[in-house]
Specification:
About 75% of the residues lie in helices and about 0% in strands. It is mainly alpha-helical and about 100 residues long. It has a domain of about 40 residues. α1 packs antiparallel against α2. The protein is flat. The N and C termini lie far apart (about 45 Å). The structure holds fe (ii) ion (FE2).
């Protein structure tokens, strides 16, 4: 499998990814989107230049949409994992609202 984690990796596949590899690649893409959001937020907090802040705000919103799209792909690619995610959501809602 192509090592997506290597920054300088040039993706030249000699074959298509199998389903397991695709799932791992999409999960890696999700973490990369969050990492990008974090970087943009740090840059925004490090400047008073409104032009830069405005551009990065817009890009950050786009990255959040990408996260949503990738999450949806994970649902399609791994219904079994998705059931576990849903259990986690429900447990968190229950625990969170118990504290009110
Ligand atoms: Fe993105």
């Amino acid at each position: 499998m192509t090592d997506f984690a290597k920054v300088n990796c040039v993706f030249k596949p000699d074959r298509k990814l199998n389903p397991t590899e695709m799932l791992r690649a999409i999960k890696f893409a999700v973490s990369s989107e969050f990492e990008a959001i974090q970087i943009y937020q740090q840059i925004m907090e490090s400047t008073d230049d409104k032009r830069i802040i405005n551009v990065l705000k817009e890009i950050t919103e786009d990255e959040k949409k990408h996260v949503g799209g990738l999450y949806k792909l994970l649902e399609f690619l791994s219904p079994a994992d998705n059931e576990i995610y849903q259990e986690g959501y429900a447990e968190t809602v229950e625990n969170f609202t118990d504290g009110e």
